[in-house]
Amino acid sequence: MNAPHVTALVVTYQTGPRLKECLYALAAAPDIAASVIVDNGNPAAMREWLDRFVGARPDFTLLRPGENLGFGAAVNLAVKSAGTAQLLVINPDAVIRWGSIGAMQDTAKGLREPWIVGGRIFDLQGREERGARRRELTLWRAMTRVIGWNTWTMEGDPAPSSAIEIPVISGAFFLTSAASFAQLGGFDEGYFLHVEDIDLCRRCREAGGTVMYDPRAGALHYGATSDAPSKIVAGHKADSLERYFKRNAKGWFERACVAALMPLIKLATRLRA
Prior knowledge:
- There is one protein chain.
- The protein is α/β, with parallel strands linked by helices.
- The protein has a single domain (6-226), classed as Spore Coat Polysaccharide Biosynthesis Protein SpsA, Chain A, CATH 3.90.550.10.
- It is built from nine helices and nine strands.
- Strands 1, 2, 3, 4, 5, 6, 7, 8 and 9 form a nine-stranded mixed sheet that branches.
- Strand 1 (6-13), helix 1 and strand 2 form a beta-alpha-beta unit.
- The mean pLDDT is 94.
């Protein structure tokens, strides 16, 4: 039986030339049927290049909402133009490794909806980057993270040799089904940037679904290619963390802890920028 068709979804904002590498890799991948690009804002030269690139490829669609929608909202917009059974979300500064889609689809076989399969994200030296494997995010782990003691992300743990179930994968590179994404209601657009992937994984698990990490799938991630000011990015991250903890706090004691600790977490997040 043929594997389900996949549409790649790419959200770009002031990405820089690495976007070209990302799109050329998607265009060459035989197991990606189509790609949708959301241009949240790029310089004129890049916009012109995107017009030429997409104009020469009928399997690519370019969307320009006219403003920066944020990551989650832009992915949700792209999904509306995707007509395939499965969706690949990939960062605009990431280059997919050959054969990754087949590995992810193999892992997804037999999983009931909703499901999400993430892959290994590595740097130019081949080292696993932070965030592709993560434990569940808690206030304690957020506090230890901002003071430099990492109890949350798992890149320092021994790498698995095969696909494993895991609480959180990275929104920079993952496969899901269109049915799963619809069942979960897509990304929560209340998160402008950061934490929307953590929230999606949490809702997937709470809905009785499965989040998997497959080390056979991979993407080279350049990172830090956007011209967006780091302080603004950190501000969005701080606001997203506050939203996440407030929405998921259970009982008066946990809500009190969130109220007491979030100003410190937000301050530390901004200072780290």
